[in-house]
Amino acid sequence: MNSKTRVHAALKREPVDRAPIFMWFHPDTAKRLGKVLEIPPGKVAEAMGDDVRQTWVANNHAMEGVTHERDGQGHTDFWGIEWVKEGPFNQIAHSPLQDASEDEILRYDHPYDRMEDLLAHMAPVVAVADEYFIGCDVSPCLLEILYRLRGMENAILDLVETPRLAETMLARAEDFAVRISEAACDRFPLDWLWTGDDVGGQQAMIVSPQLWRDMVRPHLAPIVHIGKSRGLWTAYHSCGAIRPIIPDLIEIGIDILNPVQCNCPGMNPLDLKKEFGNNLSFMGGVDTQNLLPNGTANDVRRETERLIQGMTADGGGYILAASHTIPPETPLENIFALYDAAGVPQDQIHDHAADIRNRLNP
After folding, report:
1. For the sheet containing 318-319, what is the strand order?
2. Which of 77, 138, 148, 224 has its CB surrounded by the most CB atoms within 10 Å?
3. Gap between the Cα atoms of 223 and 266, Å rounded
4. In terms of DSSP H, where are the helices of 127-258?
5. How far is it, in rounded angstroms, from Cα 355 to Cα 349?
């Protein structure tokens, strides 16, 4: 069973040979694993047996897809957002509309003229479409792009104090997300369309559930429809405590929820599975705050096995993943225990790494 078949079968609640996997590694974690496996960090997911390949074609590429060697280095993206490397990640240094007048905000437009450059990032993903389950990430779609353009505080104030202006910005963000989703879905042999915005905090949603329903949901539904109308799975990503809007996500057609940040209120993955598992699949739920960095390898193996068993109680509907990137302080034996619990033992990972080395150095 290859990766593409495995993920499709799991999402359709059909028998699989092992749990499908889609893991995100902190850059320093990928470097450590690459050193141990003697392969480039960019090949770690392949060696570990991950089943999904996707990339960003929207603003998340500017945050995660552009790398700088040293802290303080940066770039300005197609949206006019200035980024600077701080530690392993790019952080926003300046939001282009943070001090803008209402007229300036209304004149702002998304980078339609750079859509071809953004879509070109899909080339290496499409190249492995026969073997892997592939996706196109069009996030952030709505609320989070407002945060990035206006700054978090201004964006929240806009939603409350000048909702007409916020509504206009959300409508324009929707239009760009719809346009690039249409282009990607019509051009590439996708398996899912990946949408999302980080709308949850550690304890509650960043905005009230009702505000989200009133102002954000109507703009998310057309984006989701693009994937659904092409017969694709649709995924939604949001970190944090988003339990109140899960029924809304199901109603507008979301198939997969990620990352199931299990330490947040209302986000216990097994509880969510019992309540929503007939209508929603899940990706995530492995604790990155305590279990992976602080537990023993036996703890990780036992809890991962329990998670997989509970999340596949109806025969499937689950992709194994962590609730965030696997942090650099995670012992390597815990990472290997996580994969072993999913049916990818360490000796198999080393065999995969050897194949990669032979391919890179014939």
Report:
1. 52-56, 133-137, 192-196, 233-237, 256-258, 281-283, 318-319
2. 138
3. 26
4. 143-150, 152-161, 163-187, 209-211, 217-229, 246-251
5. 10
User: Read out DSSP for 296-362?
Assistant: -HHHHHHHHHHHHHHHTTTS--EEB-BSSPBPTTS-HHHHHHHHHHTT--HHHHHHHHHHHHHHH--
Give the number of residues written for the chain. Answer: 362
Alpha-carbon span 73 to 70, nearest angstrom: 6
Residue 361: what pLDDT?
86
Q: Tokens 């929603």 belong to which residue?
A: 280
Rounded Cα distance, 351 and 150, in Å: 48
Over residues 204-227, mean pLDDT: 97
Domains of the chain: 3-59+93-360 (3.20.20.210)
CB-CB contact of 311 with 269 (8 Å): yes
Backbone angles phi, psi at 93, to 5 degrees: -95, -30
| pLDDT tens column, 290-329 | 999 999 999 999 999 999 999 999 889 999 999 999 999 9
253: three-class secondary structure by DSSP: coil
Token readout for 46 is 């392949």
Specify the DSSP class assigned to residue 72.
Answer: T
Contact 1, 16 (CB under 8 A): yes
pTM: 0.96
* CA dihedral sign, ordered 179, 182, 186, 190: positive
Residue appearing with tokens 């552009």? 66
Q: What is the DSSP secondary structure assignment for residue 150, as one 8-state letter?
A: H
Taking the C-alpha atoms of residue 279 and residue 277, their distance in angstroms, rounded to an integer, is 5
* Cβ proximity of 254 and 280 under 8 Å: yes
Q: Residue 195: in which H helix or E strand, if any?
A: strand 192-196
* CA–CA distances in Å: residue 89 to residues 72, 73, 209, 265, 281: 11, 11, 29, 27, 29
